Amino acid sequence: xxxxxxxxxxxxxxxxxxxxxxxxxxxxxxxxxxxxxxxxxxxxxxxxxxxxxxxxxxxxxxxxxxxxxxxxxxxxxxxxxxxxxxxxxxxxxxxxxxxxxxxxxxxxxxxxxxxxxxxxxxxxxxxxxxxxxxxxxxxxxxxxxxxxxxxxxxxxxxxxxxxxxxxxxxxxxxxxxxxxxxxxxxxxxxxxxxxxxxxxxxxxxxxxxxxxxxxxxxxxxxxxxxxxxxxxxxxxxxxxxxxxxxxxxxxxxxxxxxxxxxxxxxxxxxxxxxxxxxxxxxxxxxxxxxxxxxxxxxxxxxxxxxxxxxxxxxxxxxxxxxxxxxxxxxxxxxxxxxxxxxxxxxxxxxxxxxxxxxxxxxxxxxxxxxxxxxxxxxxxxxxxxxxxxxxxxxxxxxxxxxxxxxxxxxxxxxxxxxxxxxxxxxxxxxxxxxxxxxxxxxxxxxxxxxxxxxxxxxxxxxxxxxxxxxxxxxxxxx
Length: 478
Prior knowledge:
By secondary structure, the protein is α+β, with helices and mostly antiparallel strands. It has helices at residues 3-25, 34-57, 72-94, 127-130, 166-171, 219-224; strands at residues 100-106, 109-113, 118-122, 142-149, 155-160, 177-185, 191-199, 228-238, 241-250, 263-271, 276-287, 302-303, 308-309, 321-334, 337-348, 364-376, 381-391, 424-436, 439-450, 455-457, 462-464, 466-477.
């Protein structure tokens, strides 16, 4: 202890001793019994002895709560604040707000698509009204995210996205739920039971715009991956590995009559270093088959967007067919640079665009690549480039959920050589400007092409080999 500290200690300790003595003299004997008074005097004597010992040892005295070192007014104010804080905590707990996190985002967008002859704002437009396409993906949405964690560690997650969420995409109707899931610890926090409606976890891109560099998604995300799973499974964290798996319905909340077999969906991630990591995901089982080569009992053909026959909307009897999907993705982020890559391969039985010569249904098969690189020129400005490729020439084409020629997405064949489907390409460049940490202005220019004329030019009614798209969006989150 320094010399200065020793000199400043003595007055403080003496002041405490004087205060204790005054307190003893001021005790009202008439209001207490002799036993109570003796107990308080003993306690006071012990306190005085303690202060004397600390003074002799050269140590500062520990102030009694609400007494030493505080004026009566300060003590009163401290008690008032403490009582108010405890009341607020009790009210929070009684109303269920403990462990609750509320967040959200919105991203109004402007999109111009050359071959579709459209240019305008897209925000809250229904998937059921306009279908799902790469120029009408999961952007242009608003979301409210609720995450509640109980004292036992159970997590409840509900995300609401009107018209643009996974439920809308799955059902071809304007719905509101994006995710509705629970996570329950099984003995320890590293092993969880997961159940409910969970968005697909494949690939390096996400559904929500706050987690993506660009506005539109890569070709693999839009055309080859599932939308969501409804079921039950587990998630296990072990060291640098996080693995999860579910036994679930793929892209439907309830199986139709005659369809009983679910899928097994899984995902594993490994964080090798703070800069690099990789993951892989797969799906194996049966899912809806939207082949247009099968007619319903009423003689109408299946609408691949809604999954219903037209015009009377009679549910088709075509059974689900086998689906096998697998992908691997990786990332590297260091400094101002970020890189992402993905390889996917898939197959669905009896879902090709073109049937065999005898009329039997054949498998749709494909594989694809996607790569993204970004660089931050400043803390606010970031440049992005992404390149995609899908090989889809087998049996006239056909991708997951697309078993017919699709002139908007450029899927299938040109109608001349119906045995050979079109391979797809896409190159996208973008520039982002962060107005502040919660507001980002995005802009991108995208060129899509195919090995065959499969894009419909709605102005002329002809098929061409490419399309160009320009888009901007304002992503605001809280």
